[in-house]
Specification:
By secondary structure, the chain is mainly alpha-helical. The protein contains 19 helices and no strands.
């Protein structure tokens, strides 16, 4: 039940992250204007690179390593102080380099770059990875939720005109910094002091760097589609692809929230040698993400064309096709999240994970060269699906000797058939009705009922797993 609770905490926060831009974006875009929003996007894009460099791969590495040492307070404490020391050192160096480049070399936008530096400080002292490794998601999610809501309120109260851009940047950076600071008091009783001479922070540099490579590769991968589309296609296609991709990834976030939760869970089982427990957890997670991502994929495809125009405006009609073509990535990434983040990384196969992501990035670039000139933004969407599938294929190759691929996919046809039946019915309804919030709610609820009914008739494995969870919950009570 602990894993379920952690997932619910994490998915609840992911939903909040989805809703926040819907609340603030229309307001900020109008109050600050396109020019000022462009300044924020540009300067924040640069600082994102520097705080990622400062953190190395400690968010993932720390999460996993703390899970290994969870049962031993002394070892856990020593590990914590070594990793936070390394994180502070690398973040300080990254901050100094950032300030030298943008405060002394760059002559424009200095005050904005300076204010953005709060993000580097915030991530430099962030210890959320420790609580994730302890499988204590309540603290991090509660902290993040409070700070996110507070920052939204302050934006509406303090950002009133185009002259308030500096306030807006400060509020975003300071809320992140305040969130990082507020986690430190929770260490009391969980971590003990360790003598400085006993600490060896730099022994973690190389393994953390290995996990940083796929992180930064993913960021580059995210940008490359847009750059290539802007160079090889019309500029309007970039915005159409960007919004379509973001809508798909917002839906995907609900599914991949399992990765953050399952990584420390499986890492702890690996540390104690519970091989059978790892396989059972992996199978349950795989079945769950399959059962959840298939209706999301088909549901988004069924409403994509009318939804894009209703939600984004008439000029974004082509975005509907982009969403339709890219929606299969929801299912593919859900699977690779299980095989990669939930399995390869917890069992010390980060090298294999890095290879898979790198292969995906290379294939994405190559396929874009062929598809974008001919199909524009639709080509970029197809390239995304193809590259994500290549990542999954590489990961299958790495796990085939440990996990039965056939066993994982055996019940897949039941979920696909259930999703396809839902897709046909919702597509017909969507074609007949005009899109509005009521129609969207009706289609969503009806889609859940149809999918659930067919899954029940086909007796898909997820039903038995839900039943088992309910029985365990009753016994605990």
């Amino acid at each position: 039940m602990k894993v379920i609770k952690n997932y619910l905490y994490n998915v609840g926060y992911q939903i909040l992250l989805m809703l926040t831009p819907l609340i603030t974006t229309p307001y900020v875009s109008r109050v600050l204007g396109a020019h000022n929003n462009g300044i924020n996007t540009y300067t924040n894009g640069w600082v994102t690179f520097f705080y990622l460099v400062g953190q190395l791969g400690i968010t993932l590495y720390g999460n996993r390593e703390i899970a290994y040492k969870r049962e031993n307070k002394l070892e856990r404490s020593k590990l914590f102080w070594e990793m936070i020391s390394l994180q502070i050192i690398t973040s300080t160096l990254s901050l100094l380099l950032y300030l030298i480049i943008f405060m002394f070399i760059s002559s424009n936008l200095k005050e904005y770059f300076l204010m953005q530096s709060l993000w580097i400080v915030a991530y430099g002292i962030d210890i959320s990875w420790y609580f994730m490794g302890m499988e204590d998601f309540k603290k991090t999610v509660t902290r993040n939720t409070v700070m996110k809501i507070l920052s939204v309120i302050l934006i509406f109260l303090l950002v009133k005109s185009k002259n308030d851009l500096i306030k807006y940047i400060f509020l975003l950076g300071f809320s992140q910094l305040a969130g990082s600071i507020t986690l430190w008091p929770y260490l009391k009783g969980s971590v003990q002091w360790v003598k400085f001479k006993e600490l060896h922070p730099f022994k973690h540099f190389y393994p953390a760097l290995l996990l940083f490579i796929p992180t930064i590769t993913t960021q580059i991968y995210f940008v490359v589609n847009r750059i290539m589309l802007g160079k090889m296609g019309p500029q309007s296609a970039v915005a159409q692809f960007d919004f379509g991709d973001k809508i798909v990834k917002l839906v995907l976030a609900i599914v991949t929230a399992t990765g953050t939760v399952m990584l420390p869970h499986i890492a702890n089982k690996f540390a104690v040698g519970d091989t059978e427990g790892i396989k059972k957890s992996l199978n349950n997670s795989f079945d769950y993400v399959t059962a959840l991502s298939i209706p999301m994929m088909f549901g988004l495809m069924a409403i994509s064309n009318k939804f894009s125009v209703w939600f984004l405006g008439n000029q974004y009609g082509p975005t509907g096709n982009i969403i339709f073509l890219e929606a299969p990535a929801i299912l593919i990434i859900a699977w690779s999240n299980v095989t990669g983040v939930q399995y390869l990384m917890p069992i010390h196969k980060e090298h294999e994970y890095t290879i898979s992501v790198t292969v995906g990035a290379i294939i994405n670039i190559l396929v874009n060269f062929f598809l974008i000139p001919k199909f524009g933004a639709n080509g970029a969407a197809l390239a995304t699906v193809i590259s994500e599938f290549s990542i999954l294929l590489v990961q299958w190759n790495f796990i085939k000797n440990d996990i039965s691929i056939f066993y994982l996919y055996k019940p897949l046809w039941k979920y696909l058939l259930s999703g396809f039946v839902m897709f046909i019915i919702i597509s017909k309804i969507n074609h007949l009705l005009s899109m509005n919030i009521i129609t969207l709610l009706i289609e969503g609820l009806l889609g859940i009922v149809i999918y659930g009914l067919v899954v029940y008739l086909l007796k898909a494995p997820i039903l038995f797993k839900i039943n088992e969870l309910v029985k365990n919950r009753v016994r605990e009570d």
